[in-house]
Amino acid sequence: AQSVAQPEDQVNVAEGNPLTVKCTYSVSGNPYLFWYVQYPNRGLQFLLKYITGDNLVKGSYGFEAEFNKSQTSFHLKKPSALVSDSALYFCAVRDDSNYQLIWGAGTKLIIKP
Amino acid sequence: EAGVVQSPRYKIIEKKQPVAFWCNPISGHNTLYWYRQNLGQGPELLIRYENEEAVDDSQLPKDRFSAERLKGVDSTLKIQPAELGDSAVYLCASSLQSSNTGELFFGEGSRLTVL
Fold first, then answer.
1. Across the A/B interface, how many CB contacts are shorter than 8 Å?
2. Chain B residue with minimal CA distance to A41?
3. What residue of A is the nearest CA neighbor of B48?
4. Residue A75's closest CA among A87, A62, A66?
5. Is there a contact between A46 and B4 if contact means CB atoms under 8 Å apart?
6. Between B41 and B12, residue with greater pLDDT
7. Which residues make beta-bridge pairs with B29?
8. Closest-CA residue to B79 (of B20, B15, B10, B8)
9. Which residue of A has its CA nearest to B102?
């Protein structure tokens, strides 16, 4: 069965430090992977996606994600965290049977000044 | 360009009452989704439309939930009667196509509280 996991409920990072939000996946074919962000009382916003090509994907707001096929991971990263990055982050993988997204449970990112 | 518009943003009702949510997707987006999101969890798909056709409603609790997308544009999601467990945020999203090599565009959601 296809699935996605976000092993951390919450990640705390000091402002200015690098951040990583983890995501692992399980799919039967080639993975289509996505990261979304949700600010308080807002809908989800697309950050970036991996379809094919370079393993390092760059997205919005200075975020990037590294696709690692051997570790079946797609971790979200940013070199220097901002307080405004505090939000809920969701990883998703496309289900090849119906092309719909399978969502992780989300990771709450807290950036402290 | 306007994004996905949802209304109302907030709704408080008593159990057994009906409630309806409205969604206007991005112009030109053929695919429309309704998701339910419980606090601290990821979104759960309720129904997906391709134009006016509901192509995936397997997760929609059909005894009390209904949806329609007349003319393949706006959509309405209805709950009748509402139960305490229906308290959640109902998210509408749209995309150009359902193959999902692109991204989904979400509205800000309708937060339902059932008392």
1. 53
2. B108
3. A100
4. A66
5. no
6. B12
7. none
8. B20
9. A49
Contact A101 B108 (CB under 8 A): no
Q: B109, A32: Cβ pair inside 8 Å?
A: no
| Closest alpha carbon to A91 in A12, A30, A20, A15 | A20
**Which residues pair with residue B91 across a beta bridge?**
B35
Side-chain-facing half-sphere of B35: CA atoms under 13 Å: 23
Name, in order, each residue with C-beta under 8 angstroms of A76's C-beta and a sequence gap of 6 or more: A20, A21, A22, A23, A35, A47, A63, A64, A65, A89, A91
Q: Using one digit for the tens of pLDDT, what is the confidence trace for A48-95? A: 999 988 999 999 999 999 999 999 999 999 999 999 999 999 999 988
Output the pLDDT for position B92: 96
Return the residue of A nearest to B33 by Cα: A100
Residue tagged 């990263």 (tokens): A77
What pLDDT was estimated at residue B2? 79
Q: For residue A77, give how far its alpha carbon lies from the nearest alpha carbon of chain B (Å).
A: 19
CA distance B107 to B104: 10
Q: Do A76 and A18 form a contact (C-beta atoms < 8 A)?
A: no
Q: Are A46 and B105 an interchain contact pair (Cβ–Cβ within 8 Å)?
A: yes
Q: Taking the alpha carbons of B104, B43, A73, A62 in that order, is the dihedral positive or negative? A: positive
Confidence of residue B98 (pLDDT cuts 50, 70, 90): low
- For testing the chain A interface, which of B6, B30, B37 should be mutated: the one with the most A CBs within 10 Å? B37
